[in-house]
Amino acid sequence: LAAIIVAITFIVQQVQAREQVAGVILVNSTTMMTEETKEQEYMNDLLASLDIDPDKNEIYVNGGIQIGEGIDATMAASSIQVLQTLIMSHSVDIAFTDESYRDSFIRNECLDDLRDYLDDEILEKYADDIIYFTSTETGEEIAAMIRVSPDSKWMQGMKWYTGDCYAGIIVKPQNKDVAVHMLLRALGEEEF
């Protein structure tokens, strides 16, 4: 009887499992796990707006990355390993970070040029909020990250950061549409 219950439980879990279609990484997020957010609701809405079934698919959010001043050295080292693994395995499409880790994140050269994803009107509107970086590998200057205010509807609902943060699209995102539309919503440029 126990074997049958275990088998049924396993089958139910497999049927209910959702496929990860995109990933988000939050470095030094200020979200408290006890805070009520609209994360699941907003992620499901984003998926549905892109004709991706939110009942069968999900966006993975890793908000446990803590790096920098005031963070335990062991935790920071572990966070850096997790961050590098997620990026190298292409398990993350878009990254958000606070200002304290922004420059270090950019120097890792793991971000695509935002000019390849955002239209000229958005780039012009946020010209003063874009952080550029010259690649040591190619010598090319890229628009690596963009400042995101905590005041947009998306950021208010997510409660990922209490102040400004920075967002960038990871090199070769597995789902660039999700990454771009999430960035536009975070900026307050896409209604939902």
Characterization of the model:
By secondary structure, the chain is of the alpha/beta class. The chain has helices at residues 2-16, 39-49, 73-88, 99-107, 120-125, 153-158, 176-187, and strands at residues 19-27, 57-65, 94-97, 130-134, 141-148, 165-169. The chain has a six-stranded mixed β-sheet with strand order 2-1-3-6-5-4, sandwiched between helices.
Percent of sequence in beta strands = 15-25%
- Which term fits the overall shape? globular
Main β-sheet description: 6 strands, mixed
**Helices and strands: which structural class?**
alpha/beta
* Mean pLDDT reading: 88
Work out the radius of gyration: 18 Å
Number of helices: 7
The total of beta strands comes to 6
Strand numbers in spatial order across the main sheet: 2-1-3-6-5-4
